[in-house]
Amino acid sequence: MTTAAIQWTAMAPILPELFLVGVAVMLIGFDLFLPRQRQLLPWMTVVGALAALGMVLGAQPGEGFGGMFVIDGYATIFKIICLGAVIITTLMSEHFLRIINLRQGEYYSLLVLSLVGMLLMASAGDLMVLYLGLELMALPIYALVGLHKKDGRTSEAAIKYFLMGGFASALLLFGLSLFYGLSGTTNIAAISELLSSGDLVASPVFLAALGLIIAGFSFKVAAAPFHLWTPDVYEGAPTLVTAFMSVGPKAAGFAIFGRVVFLGFADLQPHWAPVLAFMAILTMGIGNITALSQTSLKRMLAYSSVAHAGYALLGLLAGTAEGMAATMTYLVVYLFMNLGAFAILMALAQPGRRCESLEDCKGLATRSPLAAALMLIFLFSLTGIPPTGGFIGKFYLLKSAFMAGYSLTVVAAVIFSAISAYFYLRVVRYMYMDDPQESTPVVLVPGMKAALYLCALGVLGLGFFPGSLLQWTLSALSGM
Amino acid sequence: MSIPLLSTLIFFPILGGLSLLVIPRQQTATIRTMALLISLIELCLTLPVALMFDKSTASMQFVENHPWIASLHINYTLGIDGISVLFLLLTGVIIVLSILVSWESIITKVQEFFIAMLLLEGAMMGVFCATDLFLFYIFWEAMLIPMFLIIGIWGGPNRIYATIKFFLYTLVGSLLMLVGIILLYQNGGHTFDLIQLAGQQYSLKLQLILFWAFFAAFAVKVPMWPVHTWLPDAHTEAPAAGSVILAGVLIKMGAYGFLRFSLPILPQATQKMMMPMLVISVIAIVYGAIICLAQKDLKRLIAYSSVSHMGFVTLGLFALNQRGLEGAILQMINHGVVTGALFLAIGMIYERTHTRQIADYSGLASTMPVFAGFFLLFTLAAVGLPGTNGFIGEFLILLGGFEREPWVTVISASGLILGAWYMLWLYQRIFFNEVKESMQGLTQLNLREICTLVPMVILIFWIGLYPNALLSFMHTSVSHLIEQVQGGATLAGPVLSTAGSLIP
Fold it and tell me: Which pLDDT value is given to residue B484?
């Protein structure tokens, strides 16, 4: 009996993850045995995620499983972003799934399982846990992308994503195994200590391994030149899944990116920062310039999410606590503004019609003044115009990259964000300055409304009172 | 101060604008009346600021200082001095008149229009009150959103092109300024506070880089030649109220930015860049005026005349002496009043005829005599007839320019002659000659329209006959500003000829 007690205590650090696994299993069972009560599923998911959020917030900083699992301020903030992404997407899901006529049960459980993977990634203190979390996150998403079986486009997206994702995982795994070969350990902190002693850096194998894992991470955050899967997969997947993918996995990707590169290999900053700076410029350039020529709003938002990964890299490459705090702040703001924009896209959808093109936004201000006004806020925030959170986030990123000496990268970022204004404004133009093509009003169901208000509150609240969030992200890092 | 007057000035119209949301969309009359009421109260709120303003000191008054984003050293700092106080009054007046002129011309999305107007007013007040660079930038950029919508939704046929051009031009300029602000923060002891930043020494190279970064934002806004091309489009396509605000307040902010930031923070760079800036100003004056002669579109003509008049403003500004600077500030107010009045008048006539082509008009003097009288007054003020406000400002600027570089005044004085030419010729084409078929039977100005124009007439004569009423506000602040510019230069040794490095 005593051994059992010890084991249970050892499980305490992963309590939220275990709880969510339980929720996922329960969702499947509920779906299977009580099909008539299916409309309760989204609410159960939300309640489960909220309970997990409470556990994450209440967790004591510490380690579990001999340093393999880390609970610190850094992990907590990323976990909150991922949980927030799941909560907000779930609020939006009911209406949208009904419109595209999908069976619901497995959707929610897959979402929750993917969430567990993301939480593991945020807390990974060991390369094995990192990889485990990554795969646990990715596998349900492959299924989610292809959820709409009757639609050829989604199946194509799912296969594409699966093949490319598998390839990227292989690259990452190869890199990780090289690290293990060089250092004899998979613990990130231990590798970091070995690095400070300095004999590893000279090895070309080490640099190859570094390159491989940066490539693997870049695939997950959709940074150029590893972004090629993004537009097709984002466009093909059901909008709901796209919305989730553009925020949750991206944030989790940044969590491991920062954990390994920024926290683990901090001493090597001169080696990886120029690479990241180059990738950031490339990502912002490709994302923003390609978005200019899109006629599909969904595809435009896909490219815009590539561009935003580029902005977020700006903080990471600075290699300072302030820079990482800026990236984290930006991801929080991005959660609200990007999900908000996707929510409006979902609200436009009608039974049997996707309504994903720019033309479908025409005259939205007449069809639904509320939806148009909210979209306006999200778009200006994505552009980075004050007084929205997008501006504060972008400013913080630019400032920290500039202070770290990457002034040319910052100038490039500024130019690209001016370019981005054009395609975001084009949506505003269609909404407000053109006459509607159809007169059907846009219905906002309560769940959707709640998600939209939450997003708008986040975007504006962080625009006016960003102080405490900045303080929080910074203190989460300075304690390390 | 126990009452935060400046914060009230900023947030009263914003909250007032948002409160319009509770009125049902269909009740347009209520929305209009409420908006007018809010803007009138706001105008009344600017009065105590002007009355309690202490003219004997150059330091910031009505100061409010609260920490805002502590981890980035950003404070919510407000304050006004002799340079900014008049702009608060101008903004208050212009918004009231813009709301009056939109009374009947705005028929679609009425609620959104008046909300946008009031939000814009709040942001504009914020620009003139902020003494923290970051806060200034927030208001400066936030202003773009309502203006973008006002031109784009309620503008003329080519409005979308115009508004996107306006937005992108200003955004690119502003973003470059943002990089400059970060650079200044890095080198100025990690603060965004204007007063602290101005009290430091920066190397000349840094000053020059910063000067060009700020120039990017301010020159686009003024607009200075050669980045003025958005203005004719924006002015032409904007609804009457939009044109009035653009001409009346918005484009003054560029010049205000130079006064508030470039001059005191970057004195040496300003001295070094004086000559190129004077040259650009002279080009703007003459070029703008000549282009006016070729215009067929009424609003476009006034827009180009703005380019020319703003050339005078920057000329006085970069003359860097007491007369030039005071003339420039006064001319900003004057231009706001006169060009604002012209756009108001054009808005009224456009509502009746629905054409902006000068060739379509003729003989209005006999069909609309009252209107013709008003328009004549505004025309003469724009030309700079002694006794009207236009004369005082331009005269001071030319005087200041002459003290600095006589040739500058010689050339730019030709702008006055050209100005008289194009304005009087415009008047002749519109109001004289025989009455055309299409111009007959136009309704006379109604009481609301006369009430809109009369305040402008009063301002034109009041400033024209007793300019000291406004000049007295700025004497102390302007001489302090000149001390800052010259002080910075003397500390760094004599100012070299401009043949040296103009570009860092």
Answer: 84
CA distance B228 to B290: 15
Rounded to an integer, what distance in angstroms lies between the CA atom of residue B444 and that of residue B459? 23
Q: What total of structural domains would you count in chain A?
A: 1
Query: How large is the average pLDDT for residues B223-233?
Result: 88
Q: For a pLDDT cut of 90, what percent of chain B falls above it?
A: 22
Residue B489's pLDDT band, with cuts at 50, 70 and 90, is low
C-alpha closest to that of A329 among A142, A140, A463: A463
Q: Are B378 and B338 in contact (CB under 8 A)?
A: yes
**Separation in Å, CA A161 to CA A227, A300, B253, B322, B399:** 11, 19, 50, 68, 71
Q: Are B335 and B309 in contact (CB under 8 A)?
A: yes
pLDDT at A325: 92
Q: Which residues in chain B (66-125) have CB-CB distances under 8 A to chain A?
A: 68-72, 109, 112
Non-local (6+) Cβ contacts of B47 within 8 A are B89
Contact criterion met (CB below 8 Å) for A249 and A116: no
What pLDDT, on a 0 to 100 scale, did the predictor assign at position B494?
A: 39
| Lookup: tokens for B155 | 């503008």
pLDDT score for A22: 94
- What pLDDT, on a 0 to 100 scale, did the predictor assign at position B445? 82
Beta strands in A37-150 (DSSP E): 62-64, 69-71
Q: What is chain B's length?
A: 504
Is the per-residue pLDDT at B368 higher than 90? no
CA-CA distance, B116 to B122, in Å (whole number)? 10
* Cβ within 8 Å of residue A306, ≥6 positions away: A222, A223, A224, A227, A230, A231, A283, A286, A287
Residues 403-462 of A with CB under 8 A from B: 403, 407, 410-411, 414-415, 417-418, 421-422, 425, 428-429, 432-433
* AA letter at B353: T
Q: Please state the domain extents for chain B.
A: 5-491
> What CA–CA distance (Å, rounded) separates A31 from B176?
55
Residue B498 has pLDDT above 80, yes or no: no
* A386 contact B CB<8A: yes
| Pick from A168-177, A302-311, B55-64, B410-419: least confident | B55-64
Per-residue pLDDT reduced to its tens digit, A411-442: 999 999 999 999 998 899 888 888 887 777 78
How confident is the model at residue B497, as a pLDDT? 39
Domain span at A282: 270-480
> In the structure encoding, which two tokens stand for residue B208, read together?
């020059």
Record: contact B164-A417, CB cut-off 8 A: no
Mutate to test the interface with A, among B7, B22, B72 (most CBs of A within 10 A): B72
For chain A, which ranges sit under pLDDT 70? Answer: 1-6, 103-104, 479-480
Distance from C-alpha of B71 to C-alpha of B169, rounded to nearest angstrom: 32
The shortest C-alpha distance from A393 to chain B (Å) reads: 12
Q: Chain A closest CA to B398's CA: distance in Å?
A: 38
Find the CB nearest A385 among B141, B159, B186: B141
The phi and psi torsions of B348 (rounded to 5 degrees) equal: -65, -45
Distance from CA of A377 to the nearest CA of B (A): 10
Q: Are B31 and B114 in contact (CB under 8 A)?
A: yes
How many angstroms separate the CA atoms of B381 and B394, rounded?
Answer: 11
Name the residue with tokens 């390159």. Answer: A211
Q: What is the 3-state secondary structure (H, E, C) of A163-219?
A: HHHHHHHHHHHHHHHHHHHHHCCCEHHHHHHHHHHCCCCCCHHHHHHHHHHHHHHHH
Grouping H, G, I as helix, E, B as strand and the rest as coil, residue B76 is strand
Q: Which of A403, A418, A474 sits opposite B172 (nearest CB)?
A: A418
For B240-299, what is each residue's pLDDT tens digit? 889 999 888 998 999 999 998 888 888 888 888 888 999 999 999 999 999 998 888 888
Query: Does any domain span residue A201?
Result: no
